[in-house]
Amino acid sequence: MNLQTLIAAIDQEDHTLVEKMNIQTDTLVGNQCGRNETERFLYRGSSVVYLNASDRGVGRNRNRLLDAATGNYLILADDDMRFVDGYPGIVEKALDACPDADVYLFNLIEKKPQRYINRSFRRIGRMQYARYGAARMVLRRAAIEEAGLRFSTEFGGGAKYGSGEDTIFLQACFKHGLRIRAVPYALAEIDQEAPSSWFAGYNEHYFYDKGALYAALHPVACRLYALRFVIRYRRRFAGQYGVREAARAMRRGMEAYLHESKGSD
C-alpha cells in the first residue's frame, strides 16, 4: 500500500515545514512561492519533493500535486496542519474497513470544534459532500485519474472566487460515480489561529463569492440554495452583515458567474 502526502503550501522559504507537519510518508509539497524550481531530499527515510512555483491559486497548486503524484493513495493537506503520530497506519485502518471506496473523508482535530464530525463509517451522498474540505480527503489515485478529475482553478484561495474548489471537486467525484466514504478517524490537527488565505470576515466579497459558488454547483436551483444559506446561517453573520444585503451580494455573484459561464460556452 503506497501512501503519499500532498501538501498545498504558500511562501515556504526552507524545508522546515515537513518537520512542523510531522510528515511520515513520501510527500509532495506544492509551494507557491514566487520561484520555479524542484527540490528533492529525504526526511526520516521518506522522499520529499518541493514543487516550487510562481503562480497562485490553491486549485492550480493541488492540480500540480495530483499531476506529479505517484502514490496509490493520496493524503491531501494544507500547510496549517500537523499530522498525528502513526497517521499512515490510521489511513491503512480506514482502507481495510472500506476497501471499495475511492474517496475517504476524515475528521480534523480542532481545539474549538467547528467542522462536522464523522461518528461512524458511512456512505456520503448528494446532501452530505459539501460539509468537507480538501484537507480531510484521502484519494485513490487510480479512480481520480480514470475519471479525469481535477480541482477548479476559478475557486479557492488565490483564485477569482475565494473558496469552494473542494466542494466542486467532491461534487464531480459524486457525479462520476466515485464511492465516497466518511471515516470516524482524524489524521491531523488544524491550526485555527493561522491566517486564512480567503476568509476575511462576513463581508460583501464573502457573500458575492458564495453566490458564485452556488451558481457553479447548482446553476438551475442556485437561488433557492442561496436563500436557504442566508436563512440557515443568519445568526452566524449577525452584526457583521445584514440578511438582505447578504442575499443581494449572493445574487450579484450568481448572476456574474452565470453570465460568464454562458459567455464561455
Rg: 19 Å
Helix count? 8
Name the structural class. alpha/beta
User: What's the helical proportion of residues?
Assistant: 25-40%
Strand element count: 10
The CATH architecture of the largest domain: Alpha-Beta Complex
How many separate structural domains? 2
Percent strand equals: 15-25%
CATH topology of the largest domain: Spore Coat Polysaccharide Biosynthesis Protein SpsA, Chain A
Distance between the termini: 42 Å
Largest sheet: 10 strands, mixed
Question: What is the residue-mean pLDDT, rounded to a whole number?
Answer: 95
Uncertain runs are none
For CATH, the homologous superfamily of the largest domain is named as Spore Coat Polysaccharide Biosynthesis Protein SpsA, Chain A
What is the top-level CATH class of the largest domain? Alpha Beta
Gross morphology? globular
Order of helical and strand elements: EHEEEHEEHEEEHHEHHH
What labels would you give this structure?
265 residues; 2 domains; 8 helices; 34% helix
